[in-house]
Design brief:
Layout lengths: L1 H10 L4 H42 L2
């Protein structure tokens, strides 16, 4: 009786798919956050250099 229930519990894979999707979603989220952080840093440098060029050209 107990062996059957333990075997049934171990063979149950109903929640495995949702856990896999959650892991994939978290990896994608972290990747997006990292890439947006790097892009924003480089864009800030571009805008600062453009701003400096306009600032020095108007004198």
């Amino acid at each position: 009786m107990k062996k059957a229930k333990v075997f049934e519990f171990l063979s149950d894979e109903s929640g495995a798919t949702s856990i896999e999707y959650a892991l994939i979603a978290s990896i994608v989220s972290v990747s997006i956050i990292v890439s947006l952080t790097q892009i924003s840093t480089s864009l800030q440098g571009v805008f600062n250099s453009v701003s400096a060029a306009f600032g020095s050209g108007s004198n």
